Amino acid sequence: MATRWGIVGAGKISHDFLTAMGTLPIGEHRVVAVAARDRERAMEFGKTHKVEKVLNTYEELAKDVEVEVVYVGVIAPAHREMVKLMLTNEKAVLCEKPLGLSLAEVTEMVELARQKNVFFMEAVWSRTFPLYDALTERLSSLGQPCNMVLTFGQAGNHLPDQRLAWKKNGGGTVLDWGVYCIQMILHVFGPEMPSKVVASGLALNEDGVDIAMSVALYFSGSRMATFITDLRVDLPCEAHISSSGGQVKVAAPFWCPPSIEVNGVKEDFPLPSGAKHPFHFTNSQGLAFEAAEVRRCLKLGLTESPKMSLETTMIIARVQQEIMNQLGIDYKA
Predict the structure, then answer these.
(1) Is the pLDDT of residue 333 over 90?
(2) How high is the pLDDT of residue 143?
């Protein structure tokens, strides 16, 4: 039986998610409904992706008995409201990252999901890539990883016409890009809150979001990780992992990587093919892995994904909140 999806938001990431889903075996997924603020845009989206129903409101989608699981693809400041609406109506939810604008928001959503006993997952698609499973296996033969260095920078994102330049969009790097860095570190070191978080950055922009930052995370067992983010310039966007047995490089972009190198030996991991529409974002074909993981979890009756647990989501939110506190970032101010 097909997994029955409802889609919240008709923007670029929702387009890529459904385009990637279309590469999966026929009959596994069914897109029942879509709702968006802009009715005309939703109609066009529905036509493009052959969605069965275009609904007038998010409330209609939340109450649609045919919808089994909801993908939330709106901007981060709207996540809390949308997630609470869907969970309250006992829909399973896959919500785009970053899940919330603060630790308090994330905690509220996670607690509601647990109270309702329904599936809930932050859409950190990286965790569902087969390469990430292979990374864990390769690292197991190299001894305990003790040091990591990651970078995430894409030029021009600080400019006034860019989404990440504005607080109203959940802008800056700490949430949108920081989540990728932190999740990778936790994937390698395990779901453990760092014993110390040290963040420094440039002065916030005039709207109060960070432009660039450097963060060091310290863990038990003399392990540490450092990541650098920058809205202004391109950075390598690789992840480097060192242990007593050698080094692993996760190729750019490390959050949706095509390959890894273990002590200089490269190993490629192909992405799904056969998409019917162009993608907006790099390697969005990999969103198919995420859709497949949600289907797997629902079929097993799980309320969270072992690949991206709610415990991990909470640790990420705690680390992000500590960084925001140190840099003076407040999305509610």
Answers:
(1) no
(2) 95
310 three-state secondary structure: helix
Q: Which residue type, as a one-letter code, is found at position 18?
A: L
CA dist 229 and 211 (Å) reads 8
If 0-12 CB within 10 Å is exposed, 13-18 middle and 19+ buried, where does residue 235 land? Answer: middle
Q: Which amino acid is at 158?
A: H
E-strand ranges in 124-264 read 145-153, 196-201, 212-219, 223-230, 239-243, 246-250, 259-262
Tokens representing 301 are 């009756």
DSSP state of 76: G
Please state the pTM of the whole predicted model: 0.98
- As given in the structure block, the two tokens for residue 297 are 């979890």
Whether pLDDT at 193 is above 90? yes
Cα separation, 231 vs 166, in Å, equals: 12
Round to whole Å and give the CA distance between 201 and 206. 15
The four Cα atoms 85, 110, 216, 163 give a dihedral, to 10 degrees, of: -10
Mean pLDDT calculated for residue range 283-296 = 98
Task: Please tell me whether residue 70 adopts helix, strand or coil conformation.
Answer: strand
Contact (Cβ atoms closer than 8 angstroms) between residue 100 and residue 77: no
CB 102 within 8 A of CB 329: no
CA 148/CA 125 separation, integer angstroms: 21
User: What percent of the chain lies above the pLDDT cut of 70?
Assistant: 100
d(CA 79, CA 72): 7
Nearest to 53 by CA among 42, 41, 63: 42
